[in-house]
Amino acid sequence: MTHAALPDLDALRGAGKPGLARALARLERAAGSEEAIRLLDAADAAPRGEVLGLTGPPGVGKSTLTGALVRAFRARGESVGVIAVDPSSTRSGGALLGDRARIPTDPEDRDVFVRSYAARDRLGGLSDLAFGAAILMRALYDRVIVETVGVGQSEADVALVGDTILLAVQPASGDALQFIKAGVMELPDVVAVTKADLGQPARRARDDLESAMSLSGAGDPGWEPPVALVSSETGEGLDALVEHLRAHSRFLGSDGRLDRRRSRQAEARLEAALKGRFGAEGLRAARPLLAGLEGGPFAREAEVSRTLSARLAGET
Predict the structure, then answer these.
(1) Under 8 Å between Cβ of 48 and 139
(2) Is there a smaller number of Cβ atoms within 10 Å at the N or the C end of the chain?
(3) CA angle 225-152-190, nearest 5°?
(4) Where would I find the AAA+ ATPase domain in this sequence (predicted)?
(5) Which has the closest alpha carbon to 44: 257, 253, 266?
(6) How deeply is 293 buried, as exposed, middle or buried, from its count of CB atoms within 10 A (0-12, 13-18, 19+)?
């Protein structure tokens, strides 16, 4: 059975949700192929929107918050793509929870697209397929939300693709102290305390987190990460949270900050991919090769991978 070739980026922009779904399925089957590399590098070079990385511990209400943010962005006329990273099935390797069951969206809305990806062999982290999907959807939508599982590798991974990192924390959970110990408080650009309708426990969590943020030195120079109280159920605080996210977008848009962040992310993703495939020694061998190599990040990764694979084959 033959499969249709991947469309180019211009064709994909006019293909709608069915076209994107087919392209993502084709990317899974043709991962690492020349056509996949061309499409992903074209998307990387032509970002349309911004990526919001949403992370936080299991049970904090990330999926409900994602649905609320989708509605808020759509109310402002923005198109939204969502990547939901799920735990992997030990039997199939696929996503266990699924997208539509987790995130409440209108399936008839042509400007909202939701896709689930399994964490695969990364503990809570983003698979290579999810990274590629985020880059592609960033070229097609005004807003892309990447929602992580919220354990293990997820916080570090989402920082490799998110323009803005939103950390969700629930009241009376002790998460603030645990995050300080784990260094997580250094990552977010905005923090949301969910379940604000609980009242005093939510306000206490906000105060604790504000103290933690001030001690962590989080945020880029010139940006102090705000902590917002929000209830996805009642809508309390949602407008304020969206304004915090927009304020960070404006901050990134000044003085070339967004371009610099994305450039650092692309290099870090490339190195992470090479280290995952060839180990620390392989990454050290790859760095001199990368230094003199031009082109998009996906083409550079493929070229260096071929070189390292050939070297390894010659040693056996």
Answers:
(1) yes
(2) N
(3) 10
(4) 48-191
(5) 266
(6) middle
Separation between Cα atoms, residue 170 and residue 306, nearest integer Å: 45
**Global pTM value:** 0.88
| 32 Ramachandran zone, left/alpha/beta (phi>0; psi -120 to 50) | left
Taking alpha carbons only, the member of 301, 274, 303, 298 closest to residue 6 is: 298
Tokens at 188, concatenated = 């977010």
Give CA–CA dist 87/94, Å, rounded. Answer: 8
H or E stretch covering 49:
none
d(C-alpha 245, C-alpha 82), whole Å? 16
- DSSP string covering 114-163: EEEEE-TTSTT---HHHHHHHHHHHTT-SEEEEE---STTHHHHHTTT-S
Q: Helix (H) and strand (E) counts for the chain?
A: 11, 7
Amino acid, single-letter form, for residue 223: W
Q: Which of 186, 199, 122 is nearest to 159 (CA)?
A: 186
Per-residue pLDDT of the chain (316 residues; tens, 9 = 90+): 455 688 899 999 999 999 999 999 999 888 889 999 999 999 999 999 999 999 888 888 898 999 999 999 999 999 999 999 876 543 434 444 444 455 667 778 899 999 998 875 554 467 788 899 999 999 999 999 999 877 555 667 888 899 999 999 888 766 665 665 556 677 889 999 988 888 888 888 888 888 877 776 666 788 989 999 999 888 899 999 999 999 999 999 998 999 999 999 999 999 988 998 899 999 999 999 998 889 999 999 999 999 999 988 876 4
**Cβ proximity of 52 and 70 under 8 Å:** no
